[in-house]
Structure formats: structure tokens, C-alpha cells
Amino acid sequence: MGIRKKNNKNPPVLSHEFVIQNHADIVSCVAMVFLLGLMFEVRQYNASFVFCSEETTVNYFHYGLKDVATVFFYMLVAIIMHAIIQEYMLDKINRKMHFSKTKHSKFNESGQLGAFYLFSCLWGANILVSENLLSNPVSLWDGYPHTLMLFQMKFYYICQLGYWLHAIPELYFQKTKKEDIPRQLVYISLYLVHITGAYVLNLNRLGLVLLVLHYFVELLFHVSRLIYFSNEDRQTGFTVWAVLFVLGRLLTLSLSVLTVGFGLAGAEKQGLNLAEGSFNVLFVRVTVLAAICTTQAFMMWKFINFQLRRWREHAQTQTLKKKPSSSKSKSKKGQVYLQP
């Protein structure tokens, strides 16, 4: 069953326009090949533990090369979901609102990211509560390396990687402007590097907390932008987002320094041991902290530029509003002066 509506004009088969118009159907066919593999029982890096007190078996998972195929499959699923949200939700709203081209692209971006951030934030928060990571912050570094994960933790990271990988071909499918592609690639690369780093270095607990925190702040921004597009007078959400953005950066740095700089530095297991999955050495800790601090500084720089641009635009609009009133007052004065 087709996902995207077909135009009356049929482009040549395998042309760029044909692929763009039918990319969801093409990806669905490829995904069906992977679904056939689910008919066979294949255990992926799992280990079972039996608790004598409860006589229950709990499956824990770790990562490996097989995850590459799994991530690729969920990348295809993300492309299909992207097309469904675009076709049956965002396009219908766009036709009713009659946005300009600039607002149209920004509305689609906020709609797609807002849906993803909401889903990921709720899902991540549920994992944090179920594994008691919020009530026991020491667990972020206690018992490192955290090589074994419950299924929902591993599946969460797989889906995150699949989603941000899908954003790369979407640049082609959505006909992104050439001048916007470098910005989007930097944005996507930062997510992939940090999520992969947390997953591979067995810092999945810290990564989950930071992702939920970051996603919550980003969700507020995109919801505020969607509200702004519906009514340009409603800008309160941007003010709340600006405050939480700064607090989020400070909290991210604090948790990172506390976990990596102090918690892992004082842990019992020190040294590099690939067999056990331990990367608790000074070089890795410094690299992780440097990457996090550099990213937070980059985000703050972008945030300051964004706020300055908003203030300039606001000042320009205020100036334009004052000019007509001042010109009217001058004309009235001239008319009074010319009267006999």
C-alpha cells in the first residue's frame, strides 16, 4: 500500500523526481526484506541471569557488530514514519495555514523534530524511572563498565542511532537547499557522535540522562515555534525556552564533570580493558569531557547569535511601526502651518 500520494505526472523510472516522490514505498520494500529475518529466532548479544530468590530469568544485552544491521533497519523505519507524519499530518496543516516557503520548511522541521523529541523524551523518562537512575545518581558511575543493558535501554539507543542516520538521506528526499545542508550535517553529526560514544564507551546511563534533558529543552523550542507560526503574538514559549536552555547547559556540564571527572576517576576498576568493556583511563575521560564541553560551548554560541538576531529583528519591526506614525504627524503639522 502506497504511503505518499502520487502526482498526475509520472516522472521517468529511477529518475531523481521518481525516487523523491516514491522513496517511502521503495524503503518499505527494502524493510520487508529485513522483516523476513524476524521470522527466525536470532538472539542478539543477550545473556540470561537467574535470580534464585524470585526464580525469574532476566535477559541483558550488550553491543556488537550485529547492531549495525539493526540500526540500518530502524533507519528505514524512521524514513517511513517521517513520510507518514509529513503526508497525513504536516501537509494537511500546511494547506490550511497557507505558509510562505520559509515558514513552510521551518514548520515541517519543527513538526518532525517535535514529534520525535516528545516520543524520545517520554520513552527515556520511563527508562530512567524504571531503572531508578534519577533517585540514585551514584548509579551513573557506580559499577562501571555498564556493559549489560536491559532490552529497553539497548533498543532506545538503537532507535536513536537509526533516527539520526535517517536524517542524512532525508536531506535529499526533502530537497533541502544547498546552503542549509552544511548546518544540518553538523547538527546530525553531533548527535551521532555523542550517542555512539555513550553507547560504545558503556556510558549509556549518563548518555540517557543527558539525552532526556536535552530533548526536553529542544521539545519546548519546537513547540514554541509551532505556536508562533499559528499566532505570531505568542512568543512566551521562547522566553521560557531561553531560560531552560541555559540551565540545561549548566546541568549537562555539572553531571558530566561529576560522573566522568570525579565518579569514574575514583572508581575501583581503572585502566583500558576491551574484553571487559572498560575505557576508564585518563585519556578517554579527558576526551569525553572535552567533547561535551566543546559541544555545550558551541550550542551557547549559536544560542547567543540566535537571541541577538531576534532582538535586531524586533528592533527593526518597532522602528518600522514608528515611521508611519511620525510621518503622519509631520504631514499634519505641515497642513496646519500652510493654513492662512
From TrEMBL:
One of its GO terms (cellular component) is endoplasmic reticulum membrane. It is a multi-pass membrane protein. Residues 320-333 have a biased composition (Basic residues). It is found in: Endoplasmic reticulum membrane. One of its GO terms (biological process) is SRP-dependent cotranslational protein targeting to membrane, translocation. It comes from the Eukaryota. Keywords: Endoplasmic reticulum, Membrane, Protein transport, Translocation, Transmembrane, Transmembrane helix, Transport. SMART domains: TLC (SM00724). Residues 317-340 are annotated as: Disordered. Its main location: endoplasmic reticulum. The chain crosses the membrane at residues 20-40, 71-90, 111-129, 185-202, 208-228, 240-262, 282-304. Residues 105-314 form the TLC domain. Belongs to the TRAM family. This is Translocating chain-associated membrane protein 1-like 1. It comes from Sinocyclocheilus grahami (Dianchi golden-line fish). The gene is LOC107596048.
